[in-house]
Amino acid sequence: MQVEWLSAAVDYGVLGLLLALSIVVVAIAFERIFFYRSIDPKNFSNLKVLELELTRRLLVVASVASNAPYIGLLGTVLGIMLTFYNLGLDTSIDTSKIMIGLALALKATAAGLIVALVSVVIYNTLLRKAKVLMLQWEIAHG
Protein backbone atom coordinates (compact mmCIF):
# COMPACT_ATOMS: atom_id res chain seq x y z
CA MET A 1 0.00 0.00 0.00
CA GLN A 2 1.50 3.31 -1.07
CA VAL A 3 0.99 6.28 1.19
CA GLU A 4 2.39 8.95 -1.13
CA TRP A 5 -0.98 10.71 -1.16
CA LEU A 6 -0.94 10.78 2.64
CA SER A 7 2.60 12.15 2.62
CA ALA A 8 1.56 14.93 0.24
CA ALA A 9 -1.57 15.63 2.33
CA VAL A 10 0.47 15.94 5.53
CA ASP A 11 3.13 18.03 3.83
CA TYR A 12 0.82 20.43 2.04
CA GLY A 13 -1.75 20.40 4.82
CA VAL A 14 0.65 21.49 7.55
CA LEU A 15 2.54 23.96 5.39
CA GLY A 16 -0.74 25.26 3.95
CA LEU A 17 -2.18 25.78 7.43
CA LEU A 18 0.95 27.62 8.54
CA LEU A 19 0.84 29.79 5.43
CA ALA A 20 -2.83 30.60 6.03
CA LEU A 21 -2.13 31.49 9.67
CA SER A 22 0.75 33.75 8.68
CA ILE A 23 -1.48 35.55 6.17
CA VAL A 24 -4.10 36.08 8.88
CA VAL A 25 -1.49 37.48 11.28
CA VAL A 26 -0.09 39.88 8.68
CA ALA A 27 -3.60 41.02 7.73
CA ILE A 28 -4.45 41.69 11.38
CA ALA A 29 -1.16 43.55 11.80
CA PHE A 30 -1.93 45.89 8.89
CA GLU A 31 -5.50 46.43 10.09
CA ARG A 32 -4.32 47.26 13.61
CA ILE A 33 -1.53 49.57 12.41
CA PHE A 34 -3.96 51.58 10.30
CA PHE A 35 -6.45 51.64 13.18
CA TYR A 36 -3.81 52.80 15.67
CA ARG A 37 -2.79 55.61 13.31
CA SER A 38 -6.36 56.83 12.95
CA ILE A 39 -7.39 56.70 16.60
CA ASP A 40 -7.29 59.67 18.95
CA PRO A 41 -7.22 58.48 22.58
CA LYS A 42 -8.63 61.79 23.78
CA ASN A 43 -11.95 60.99 22.09
CA PHE A 44 -12.60 58.13 24.52
CA SER A 45 -14.24 58.92 27.83
CA ASN A 46 -13.29 55.62 29.46
CA LEU A 47 -9.88 53.91 29.49
CA LYS A 48 -11.42 50.42 29.52
CA VAL A 49 -13.39 51.12 26.32
CA LEU A 50 -10.19 52.37 24.70
CA GLU A 51 -8.31 49.27 25.85
CA LEU A 52 -11.00 47.00 24.41
CA GLU A 53 -10.75 48.74 21.05
CA LEU A 54 -6.96 48.68 21.01
CA THR A 55 -6.56 45.02 21.94
CA ARG A 56 -9.21 43.67 19.59
CA ARG A 57 -7.86 40.74 17.50
CA LEU A 58 -4.54 40.59 19.37
CA LEU A 59 -5.66 37.27 20.85
CA VAL A 60 -5.54 35.74 17.37
CA VAL A 61 -1.96 36.92 16.84
CA ALA A 62 -0.91 35.61 20.27
CA SER A 63 -2.61 32.26 19.61
CA VAL A 64 -0.81 31.83 16.31
CA ALA A 65 2.49 32.81 17.93
CA SER A 66 2.09 30.20 20.67
CA ASN A 67 0.69 27.36 18.54
CA ALA A 68 2.59 27.58 15.23
CA PRO A 69 5.60 25.64 16.58
CA TYR A 70 3.31 22.82 17.66
CA ILE A 71 1.65 22.68 14.25
CA GLY A 72 5.10 22.49 12.67
CA LEU A 73 6.16 19.82 15.13
CA LEU A 74 3.03 17.80 14.32
CA GLY A 75 3.97 17.95 10.64
CA THR A 76 7.48 16.77 11.47
CA VAL A 77 6.27 13.87 13.59
CA LEU A 78 3.82 12.76 10.91
CA GLY A 79 6.53 13.12 8.25
CA ILE A 80 8.94 10.99 10.26
CA MET A 81 6.25 8.37 10.86
CA LEU A 82 5.56 8.20 7.13
CA THR A 83 9.29 7.94 6.38
CA PHE A 84 9.63 4.97 8.72
CA TYR A 85 6.48 3.38 7.30
CA ASN A 86 7.83 3.67 3.77
CA LEU A 87 11.16 2.22 4.93
CA GLY A 88 9.30 -0.73 6.42
CA LEU A 89 7.68 -1.41 3.06
CA ASP A 90 11.01 -1.35 1.23
CA THR A 91 13.22 -4.38 1.86
CA SER A 92 16.44 -2.58 0.93
CA ILE A 93 17.76 0.03 3.32
CA ASP A 94 18.90 3.12 1.45
CA THR A 95 20.31 5.79 3.73
CA SER A 96 19.64 8.53 1.21
CA LYS A 97 15.90 7.75 1.39
CA ILE A 98 16.03 8.02 5.16
CA MET A 99 17.90 11.33 5.11
CA ILE A 100 15.66 12.85 2.44
CA GLY A 101 12.54 11.78 4.32
CA LEU A 102 13.79 13.21 7.61
CA ALA A 103 14.97 16.45 6.02
CA LEU A 104 11.61 16.96 4.35
CA ALA A 105 9.83 16.24 7.62
CA LEU A 106 11.90 18.83 9.48
CA LYS A 107 10.86 21.63 7.13
CA ALA A 108 7.47 21.67 8.87
CA THR A 109 9.13 22.51 12.18
CA ALA A 110 11.20 25.23 10.52
CA ALA A 111 8.08 26.73 8.94
CA GLY A 112 6.26 26.63 12.29
CA LEU A 113 9.13 28.40 14.02
CA ILE A 114 9.30 31.11 11.36
CA VAL A 115 5.55 31.77 11.61
CA ALA A 116 5.79 31.84 15.42
CA LEU A 117 8.75 34.22 15.48
CA VAL A 118 7.12 36.66 13.10
CA SER A 119 3.86 36.48 15.04
CA VAL A 120 5.60 37.16 18.36
CA VAL A 121 7.33 40.23 16.94
CA ILE A 122 4.04 41.50 15.49
CA TYR A 123 2.18 40.84 18.75
CA ASN A 124 4.78 42.63 20.88
CA THR A 125 4.86 45.60 18.51
CA LEU A 126 1.07 45.94 18.47
CA LEU A 127 0.79 45.51 22.23
CA ARG A 128 3.43 48.18 22.80
CA LYS A 129 1.60 50.63 20.53
CA ALA A 130 -1.67 49.90 22.36
CA LYS A 131 -0.01 50.60 25.72
CA VAL A 132 1.43 53.87 24.41
CA LEU A 133 -2.04 54.98 23.25
CA MET A 134 -3.51 54.08 26.65
CA LEU A 135 -0.79 56.08 28.39
CA GLN A 136 -1.57 59.03 26.13
CA TRP A 137 -5.21 58.75 27.26
CA GLU A 138 -4.14 58.73 30.91
CA ILE A 139 -1.96 61.79 30.37
CA ALA A 140 -4.76 63.65 28.59
CA HIS A 141 -7.34 62.74 31.27
CA GLY A 142 -5.08 62.90 34.31
Can you put this structure into words, describing what you see?
The chain is built from four helices and no strands. By secondary structure, the chain is mostly helical. Helix 2 (47-54) packs antiparallel against helix 4. It is rod-shaped, with a radius of gyration of 22 Å. The termini are far apart. The relative contact order is 0.19. The model has no long low-confidence stretch (mean pLDDT 91).
By DSSP, the count of extended strands is: 0
Mean pLDDT: 91
- What structural class is derived from the secondary structure elements? mainly alpha
Task: Give the assembly state of these chains.
Answer: single chain
Give the helix level as a range of percent: over 70%
Biggest sheet, open or closed, and with what strands and sense? Answer: none
How many distinct helices?
4
Estimated share of beta-strand residues: under 5%
Distance between the termini: 72 Å
Q: In angstroms, what is the radius of gyration?
A: 22 Å
H/E series: HHHH
Spans with pLDDT under 50 lasting ≥5 residues? none
Shape: rod-shaped
Quick structural overview:
This protein has 4 helices and no strands.
Question: Can you tag this structure with a few keywords?
Answer:
single chain; mainly alpha
Draw up the topology in text:
Blueprint: H1 4-38, H2 47-54, H3 58-89, H4 95-141
